[in-house]
Amino acid sequence: MPTAPHADAEIRQTGRSRAKATRRAALLDAAARLFAERGFNGVSIEDLGSAVGVSGPAVYRHFNSKHAVLAALLTGVSQDLLDGGQEVAASRNDAEEALRGLVAFHVDFALKHPDVIRVHDRDLDSLPADDSTLVRTLQRTYVEVWVSVLARLLPEADAAQLRVRAHAAFGLINSTPHSTHRSRPPREAWRRNLLEQMAWAALKAE
Fold first, then answer.
1. Is the pLDDT of residue 1 over 70?
2. CA-to-CA distance for 88 and 92, rounded, in angstroms?
3. Given this model, what pLDDT does residue 179 score?
4. If you compute the radius of gyration of the chain from its CA atoms, what whole number of angstroms results?
5. Does the structure show a pLDDT above 80 at 117?
């Protein structure tokens, strides 16, 4: 049975929307890799387009500037971390279980997104002020997810001390992109286990 004209239009629109979302995601993946390799200032709009098989001007269909690409990359990953961390914390009643879940979640993020960590560490200051404020706000909120779980596990510690513990764990976990040579990565299972153990030790240190 033939479809109605409006149904055909909706199908075409859905297909275009899906293709646009796919291309946008590909551009962000390329941006993470290229910015990590060359730095934000060493990559052009033409480089980004070429990396996904389109012309430089075609990038502007998705982002209005190279700074907008960087902003989307860093705000997106910060929001993903916050959403994931909140979900982990809310899904576990036991404080130790929740904290171990947060550690495993963050280690998984670091192992899957080393380029984004490099870009964040090196190019966060290249963001426009409003985008930088948003990224930092999301990250502070993410820290407080960890602090709220730690407070249940270490009720004698004040919030400032708990933030130090959380940041120490982040530092250990997020250091992996800087200490691993791309051509000689260690076995992932071994690295994941080591990172989780070290982060746990930092969080529970006397």
1. no
2. 7
3. 58
4. 20
5. yes
How many CB atoms within 10 Å of residue 5? 8
Are the C-beta atoms of residues 79 and 131 closer than 8 Å to each other?
no
- Residues in CB range of 40: below 8 A, 6 or more apart: 66, 70, 119, 122, 123, 126
Residues 4-20 have a mean pLDDT of 59
Q: Which residue has the tokens 């860093």?
A: 74
The pLDDT value recorded for residue 20 is 81
Q: Please state the φ and ψ torsions of residue 153, each to the nearest 5 degrees.
A: -90, -30
End-to-end alpha carbon distance in the chain: 72
Q: What is the pLDDT of residues 128-170, one digit of tens each?
A: 999 999 999 999 999 999 999 999 999 999 999 999 999 999 9
Max Cα–Cα distance, the chain, nearest Å: 72
Q: Which residue has the tokens 């550690």?
A: 103
List of residues 6+ apart from 76 with CB closer than 8 A: 28
- Confidence at 40, pLDDT banded by 50, 70, 90: very high
Query: Residue type for 17, please?
Result: S
Task: Please report the pLDDT score of residue 188 as a whole number.
Answer: 76
- The secondary structure of 89-102, three-state, reads HHCCCCHHHHHHHH
What are the tokens at 70? Answer: 């960087």
* Interacting residues of 56 by C-beta distance below 8 A, sequence separation 6+: 44, 45, 46, 48, 49, 50
**Cβ contact 28:69 at 8 Å:** yes
> Look-up: residue for tokens 């670091």?
110
